[in-house]
């Protein structure tokens, strides 16, 4: 259709409609000229991890040591690493629906069982405490929270997150994946809230995921990152070290 001259708005990929900022491209150019073309540390360079720690503190109210952070080849690898390191056959992964296609597929790769928590249009596609409670069980290994949401755009308010945290406290064996990669794509006065900041008592089992793909239109650069408990981060780094090693040094 595009070849025929039609304007097509594709909703298939989370691809920003602006270019990677020129300053980023120039920084990559300088890095290559400066010889930053060798293998980087598997879990990220100290300078990058320090910058990520500052970002989490500044924008999310979260304090992470460098040992609490990992840099991966896109946010998708963060999820892959975490699920591979923790899921046993038959473990359940609770996913709010509508959902991004890769969450249940990644869970199934490792023998996990996706369980869907329905987010209704009448609720603005936000996840309610009742819907989450209905999906939880003693076999729940992970709960995925993707807000602002792909594909619905739903944003969870502070009261919404507090209600979700109250449910999660009743399931101490469940890890929590907070995929916040769309945090800056909010409009009309909406505000993003990190659940690890809303419920700091749960931070020891929350993996907070982010990356440069959406906010900075760097989808092809493949840089994702996460903060979480150091034991989980170490296990994820072991997975990554035997899969892809570190992120492209220039990126």
Runs with pLDDT <50, length 5+? none
Approximately how much beta-strand content do the residues carry? 5-15%
The dominant shape is: globular
Q: What is the ordering of alpha helices and beta strands?
A: HHEHEHEHEHEHEEH
Taken together, the total number of domains comes to 1
Distance between the termini: 33 Å
CATH fold naming: Aspartate Aminotransferase, domain 2
Count of DSSP-assigned helices: 8
CATH superfamily: Type I PLP-dependent aspartate aminotransferase-like (Major domain)
Helix content: 25-40%
Task: Just give the CATH class.
Answer: Alpha Beta
Rg, nearest Å = 18 Å
Structural class: alpha/beta
- For the biggest β-sheet, the strand order reads 1-7-6-5-4-2-3
CATH architecture designation = 3-Layer(aba) Sandwich
Largest sheet: 7 strands, mixed
- Average pLDDT figure: 96
Number of strands: 7
List the helices and strands and how they pair.
Layout: H1 22-33, H2 46-60, E1 69-72, H3 75-86, E2 92-97, H4 102-109, E3 113-118, H5 129-135, E4 140-145, H6 158-168, E5 175-179, H7 195-198, E6 206-211, E7 224-227, H8 230-241
Parallel strand pairs: 2-3, 2-4, 4-5, 5-6
Antiparallel strand pairs: 1-7, 6-7
Tell me what the structure shows.
With 251 residues, this protein is α/β, with parallel strands linked by helices. It has a single domain (22-241), classed as Type I PLP-dependent aspartate aminotransferase-like (Major domain) (Aspartate Aminotransferase, domain 2). The chain has helices at 22-33, 46-60, 75-86, 102-109, 129-135, 158-168, 195-198, 230-241, and strands at residues 69-72, 92-97, 113-118, 140-145, 175-179, 206-211, 224-227. A 7-stranded mixed sheet has the order 1-7-6-5-4-2-3, sandwiched between helices. β2 (92-97), α4 (102-109) and β3 form a beta-alpha-beta unit. α3 (75-86) runs parallel beside α4 and α3 (75-86) crosses α8 (230-241). One of its GO terms (biological process) is amino acid metabolic process. Its EC number is 2.6.1.-. Homodimer. It catalyses: L-aspartate + 2-oxoglutarate = oxaloacetate + L-glutamate.
């Amino acid at each position: 259709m595009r070849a025929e001259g039609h304007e097509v708005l594709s909703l298939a990929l989370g691809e920003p409609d602006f270019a990677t900022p020129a300053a980023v491209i120039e920084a990559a150019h300088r890095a290559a000229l400066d010889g930053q073309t060798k293998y980087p540390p598997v879990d990220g360079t100290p300078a990058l991890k320090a910058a990520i720690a500052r970002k989490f503190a500044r924008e999310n109210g979260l304090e992470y040591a460098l040992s609490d952070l990992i840099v991966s080849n896109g946010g998708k690898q963060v999820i892959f690493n975490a699920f591979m390191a923790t899921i046993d056959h038959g473990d359940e992964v609770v996913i709010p629906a509508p959902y991004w296609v890769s969450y249940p597929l990644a869970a199934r790769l490792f023998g996990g069982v996706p369980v869907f928590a329905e987010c209704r249009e009448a609720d603005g596609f936000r996840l309610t405490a009742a819907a989450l409670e209905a999906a939880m069980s003693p076999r729940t290994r992970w709960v995925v929270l993707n807000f602002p949401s792909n594909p619905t755009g739903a944003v969870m308010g502070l009261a919404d997150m507090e209600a979700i945290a109250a449910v999660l406290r009743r399931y101490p064996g469940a890890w929590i994946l907070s995929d916040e990669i769309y945090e800056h794509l909010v409009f009309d006065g909406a505000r993003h809230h990190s659940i690890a900041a809303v419920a700091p008592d749960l931070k020891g089992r929350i993996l907070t995921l982010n990356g440069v793909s959406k906010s900075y239109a760097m989808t092809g650069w493949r840089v994702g990152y996460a903060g979480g408990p150091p034991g989980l981060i170490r296990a994820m780094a072991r997975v990554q070290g035997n899969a892809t090693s570190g992120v492209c040094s220039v990126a």
